[in-house]
Amino acid sequence: VDRRVLILGAAGQLGQALRAQWPAEDLLVPIYHSDCDIADPAQVGDLLRLLEPQLVVNCTAYHKVDEMEAQAERGFAVNALGPFYLAQGCAGRQIPLVHFSTDYVFGGNLSRFHPYRETDRTDPLNVYGASKAAGEQLVRLATPNHLIIRSTGLYGPPNRQGNFVRTMLRLAATGQTLKVVDDQLLTPTSCAALASQTMALLGAGAQGTFHATCQGACSWFEFAHAIFRLRGQKVDLRPQSSAELGARARRPAHSVLDNAHLGELGLDRMPDWQVALAAYLAEI
Ligand SMILES: NC(=O)c1ccc[n+]([C@@H]2O[C@H](COP(=O)([O-])OP(=O)(O)OC[C@H]3O[C@@H](n4cnc5c(N)ncnc54)[C@H](OP(=O)(O)O)[C@@H]3O)[C@@H](O)[C@H]2O)c1
């Protein structure tokens, strides 16, 4: 065994994708929500003390974006303080922490034509984004030995919360008309591709903050359209504006990320979003 690695959020979609690809040389210990509440510093402390890992990977998150507008305390406990407790524990043991974040740390509007680079200033529009931006910052404060990876529009193995692809397929099966917003751009990203990219970063001993999304961009409406096209499914799908949808939380209209830092290191192995989506749909 090379080292003992803890993956928190092991039942989440990214947690599962990482576990599926993790090299057999490591002793991988999946940590579930029921094993350790990341928002509880005593539980985080006990976890690190008892298991003595050499690497910690944090895939936990509370990311019900609309619900969280009225749950800021819980959002910050899970997404900001939890990662801080982990990062402090890792710093004390001089072991690295891998942590994941989101494009929602940015507030981009539609007149913005340039994808965000890692060095751009964060300016979140909602409580979720603010809690994730705070989490990143607390991780950076606590330990220089961190790898923070921001991604977008994740879909992967089944989790409790579901994802956009599975939701679209479920709704389409009811035969109803589907309305999907066409004024928010993103890059759909498969957890399998992100897991593979994470392995490449770890293999290279990378530290710091990285954007890692699939290549290209689309609106949520185009994302839905691609799902049904690749499935060969006929669905009554219509575009809708964010204003018409009237969600509780504001969302960035253009929060597409540039994998700039990966590119500079010659490590960008993220596939085109439609290629990754086709692979996922062929699998599920
Ligand atoms: N999903 C996206 O579209 C997206 C986009 C960009 C970035 N990200 C980021 O990517 C990472 C992985 O997301 P994901 O899509 O894999 O999420 P996910 O499938 O919802 O998994 C998150 C996991 O965290 C666990 N968890 C929640 N609160 C916890 C707590 N207090 N203590 C311990 N565990 C807790 C959840 O367990 P329970 O279900 O039992 O609560 C769940 O297993 C997160 O950092 C997220 O912010 C996600």
Biggest beta sheet summary: 6 strands, parallel
Q: Which shape, going by the Cα principal axes?
A: globular
Percentage of residues in helical conformation: 25-40%
Order of secondary-structure elements: EHEHEHEHEEHEEEHEEHEHHH
Distance between the termini: 32 Å
**Ligand set:** NADP nicotinamide-adenine-dinucleotide phosphate
The tally of beta strands, per DSSP, is 12
Uncertain runs: none
- Tally of contiguous helical segments: 10
Strand content: 15-25%
Describe the structure.
- The protein has helices spanning 13-21, 41-51, 72-93, 127-142, 164-172, 191-203, 220-231, 242-245, 260-264, 273-283; strands spanning 4-8, 27-31, 55-58, 97-102, 146-151, 154-155, 178-181, 185-186, 189-190, 208-211, 218-219, 237-240.
- The protein is built from ten helices and twelve strands.
- With 284 residues, it is α/β, with parallel strands linked by helices.
- The strands form four sheets. Strands 2-1-3-4-5-10 form a six-stranded parallel sheet, sandwiched between helices.
- β4 (97-102), α4 and β5 form a beta-alpha-beta unit.
- α1 (13-21) packs across α6, α3 packs parallel to α4 and α7 crosses α10.
- It is globular, with a radius of gyration of 18 Å.
- Helix content is 39%, strand content 16%.
- The model has no long low-confidence stretch (mean pLDDT 97).
